[in-house]
Amino acid sequence: MQKILTINDITDLKTAQENARLLARGVESALEAIILTDQNGAINYANPAYLNLTKFTLDELKGKKLHTLINDLTEIDFI
After folding, report:
1. Buried/exposed code over 25-39 (b: 16+ C-beta within 10 A; e: otherwise)
2. In whole angstroms, what is the distance from residue 50 CA to residue 38 CA?
3. 15-36, pLDDT tens digit by residue?
């Protein structure tokens, strides 16, 4: 009986995953308002700072186009 052993170096994959986790934590904890959109301009993420600033929920924002959202905003007080 012949056995085959395959070994794959996943160092690059693990490094990329850790970098993605660090980036996600940074965006999540940033004091600056951050919105992420898809290639069509539809919002798919807003960090807590943005939600706190605008009083929108993520469910209210998801799928909206950024340009229409700007038209919907009235006045935001900046301190």
Report:
1. eebeeeeeeeeeeee
2. 17
3. 999 999 999 999 999 999 999 9
